[in-house]
Amino acid sequence: MVRETRLSPLIFTLFTFISFIAVLYSHDFSWAFSTFRHHQQFSALNDPPPSLDELKHNKSEEMLPFAVGKTLKECDIFSGKWVRDKENKPLYEESKCPYIQPQMTCQEHGRPDKDYQFWRWQPYGCDLPKFNATLLLEALPGKRLLYVGDSLNRGQYISMVCLLHSLVPENDLLQDYNATIEFYWAPLLLESNGDGIGDDKVSERIIRNGSIDKHGRFWEGADVVVFNTYIWWMTRLKLKILTGSFTDSVQKFEILKREDAYRMGVRSMLEWVQRNMDPKKTRVFFTGMSPSHTRSIHWGGEPDGNCYNETTPIEDPEYNWALHSHESIMKIMDEEFSRSSVPLSFLNITRLSSYRKDAHTQIYKKLWSPPTEEQLANPKSYADCVHWCLPGLQDTWNELLFAKLFYP
Ligand SMILES: *[C@@H]1O[C@H](CO)[C@@H](O)[C@H](O)[C@H]1NC(C)=O
Ligand SMILES: *[C@@H]1O[C@H](CO)[C@@H](O)[C@H](O)[C@H]1NC(C)=O
Ligand SMILES: *[C@@H]1O[C@H](CO)[C@@H](O)[C@H](O)[C@H]1NC(C)=O
Ligand SMILES: *[C@@H]1O[C@H](CO)[C@@H](O)[C@H](O)[C@H]1NC(C)=O
Ligand SMILES: *[C@@H]1O[C@H](CO)[C@@H](O)[C@H](O)[C@H]1NC(C)=O
């Protein structure tokens, strides 16, 4: 759990909340988790229900921890399209989830449209399983679901909390789920000079090689871990890597291209997973790059525009944000994850999110400081085209996580 004093007040708020959810869903837990039983209740999406023999066979030979079914082999759930869905979306109301940070409550901050809330991700090859909060909580008695990473991962964490908060049937709240959902702030996963209170203002990042345990010791014992790390590595073309420790009297550095630095970070994470996670009992996820929409010209818009005032997704299925941005980083993930023998499920949300130029917080969020006259006269100049409104896109990321966890 997150206990260190270096934590920003923001995290403390979340920490309070974490305790709260632990209380909300805690007390005695009397329901014995049985993969087998779930198995019978939830057969695969499009498959006929498996026979008992198949179940036993799968369970002993290839069932991943937490799995209760399977997604069709041919179906890549990250390949699909956005479909307008006013009936089933959003999965919760912004005003009904008390945990959304003011940096993400777009309606409260005056966003005029709500359209961004009414989209469902439809994979080409199958349907996504319906997000079932009860199933998730029942799978985690005495267990920890831990998100580790930056503000984008925190957004996904809060989305998950809202999904659980609002989708657990009212009378089930009386039932006791001893499940812990946590977020640990480590934007680069490794130790850096940007980890602490107010340190996000540090102009030059220094990242310490080989330092993953500095944060990693707080992740030990988690049952499901969802990592992300990306945007903080992109602040400069070259990054300063500390080869010794921050307390050395003479600090030694190497300067790495950001791609090489990022590769170093991903490798450290994989190596940490190898050392600390038991693939027979736990699951590890990595959420891919979250795209920004800072230049409308990329999707055929005004030359000087960005995500501000965007209310509809990009319709061109060929649009590929990675081409405009950090394709080299995508390649590094492809290489490192395929080379590694560490079992890790990659949430490949980049492309599907890149269509969602409409889903960012824009100017409709709590700002760190009030906008100046000049900014007010030109709102796009201070629009946030990196983070996302909740409810919204990040709920889909968790639906995909849900699918990969229970129907791998
Ligand atoms: C959700 O999961 C619970 C527990 O496994 C199950 O009893 C319930 O029927 C499921 N709900 C839906 C809508 O599938
Ligand atoms: C809840 O789970 C934790 C392990 O994460 C365990 O130590 C604790 O005893 C459990 N509490 C109850 C009331 O079951
Ligand atoms: C980082 O540490 C690893 C393992 O100790 C080493 O192989 C690598 O060369 C180091 N990289 C840098 C830039 O110091
Ligand atoms: C926002 O977009 C609408 C049309 O979609 C347009 O009429 C309006 O002028 C735009 N507002 C700004 C401030 O760009
Ligand atoms: C993620 O999806 C993109 C297509 O959107 C693909 O090019 C890339 O190889 C995928 N990455 C991994 C690691 O599966």
Structural account:
- The protein is an alpha/beta fold and 408 residues long.
- 30% of the residues lie in helices and 14% in strands.
- The protein has helices spanning 9-24, 35-41, 52-61, 133-138, 151-167, 212-216, 258-276, 321-324, 327-339, 350-354, 373-377, 393-406, and strands spanning 80-84, 119-123, 143-149, 179-185, 206-208, 224-227, 238-242, 253-257, 283-287, 345-347, 360-362, 384-388.
- It is globular, with a radius of gyration of 21 Å.
Short description, anyone?
The chain is α/β, with parallel strands linked by helices.
Largest sheet: 5 strands, parallel
* Class by SSE composition: alpha/beta
**Count of the domains:** 1
Radius of gyration: 21 Å
Number of helical regions: 12
Q: How many beta-strand elements?
A: 12
Any low-confidence stretches, pLDDT <50, length ≥5? 1-60
Helix content: 25-40%
Shape: globular
The N- to C-terminal Cα distance equals 27 Å
Q: What strand line-up does the widest sheet have?
A: 4-3-6-9-10
Topology order in helix (H) and strand (E) letters: HHHEEHEHEEHEEEHEHHEHEHEH
Arithmetic mean pLDDT: 84
Q: What's the multimeric state?
A: single chain
The amount of beta strand, in percent, is 5-15%
Q: Which ligands occur here?
A: 2-acetamido-2-deoxy-beta-D-glucopyranose
What layout of secondary structure does this protein have?
Elements (H helix, E strand, L loop, with lengths): L8 H16 L10 H7 L10 H10 L18 E5 L34 E5 L9 H6 L4 E7 L1 H17 L11 E7 L20 E3 L3 H5 L7 E4 L10 E5 L10 E5 H19 L6 E5 L33 H4 L2 H13 L5 E3 L2 H5 L5 E3 L10 H5 L6 E5 L4 H14 L2
Parallel strand pairs: 3-4, 3-6, 5-7, 6-9, 9-10
Antiparallel strand pairs: 1-2, 7-8, 11-12
Helix pairs in contact: 2-3, 5-12, 7-9
